[in-house]
Amino acid sequence: MTGAASEYRWSSYRATALGEEDPLLVPHEEYLRLGRDEAARRYAYRELFRHHMEDAALHEIREALNQELVLGSERFKDRIEQMVVRRVRPGKPGRPRLDNDDPKVVVY
Fold first, then answer.
1. Where are the domains of the chain?
2. 50-73 pLDDT, tens per residue?
3. For residue 41, which of 50, 49, 32 has the smallest C-alpha distance?
């Protein structure tokens, strides 16, 4: 498999971009905004998939999803952490280190 969206049997791409009949699908309102008629919407939808995504970007997206982290700039991550009051970026690997002055105090 080459990774083309049309090759995945569970994908809605064939119906949405190519016009194949699929009785399970109902067009989403965002899809309907892509064009005035079905041909224009299909064309616009295909254009969304025309450009190849770099492997590094795909890896970054997958890592964020798999670890339930936020993907974006450091400023964006700061804002999200304030909103949800939890860490949204990877922590430092290993155990927290002890403070040299007081071995009972853990420094994060």
1. 5-48, 55-98
2. 888 889 998 999 999 999 899 999
3. 32
